[in-house]
Specification:
This is Zinc ribbon domain-containing protein. InterPro entries: Regulatory_FmdB_Zinc_ribbon. Helices cover about 15% and strands about 20% of the residues. The chain has 1 helix and 4 strands. Bound molecules: zinc ion.
């Protein structure tokens, strides 16, 4: 069932779920029980996000807002064996 947003004049917005065929233009406010008008909103497709949707959102968000870290996560052990035999690679700057 879709989620609709209503706005109480005294208490502000709240959400209610109704079947599409029976959605009213006004619903009772859960706080003061007065009639609250239904608001026109965009589709609320992300509500009740699944794990896959959360992963997709986090992946998209990392492109524009990458997480800044100062070191490896606790418990992560760096590779003790070097991946290169060139001794000059040891002089390269480290993070
Ligand atoms: Zn109210």
């Amino acid at each position: 069932m879709p989620l609709y947003q209503f706005r109480c004049a005294a208490c502000g917005p709240f959400d209610r779920t109704f079947p599409m065929a029976t959605v009213p233009d006004a619903a009772g406010c859960p706080t003061c029980a007065s009639a609250a008008r239904r608001q026109i909103t965009g589709p609320r497709l992300a509500h009740g996000a699944t794990a896959a949707m959360c992963l997709l959102d986090a992946t998209k968000r990392s492109a524009s807002e990458p997480a800044v870290v100062t070191g490896p996560r606790p418990g992560v052990v760096r590779n003790p064996t070097p991946t290169t035999a060139n001794p000059l690679h040891r002089t390269l700057p480290r993070p």
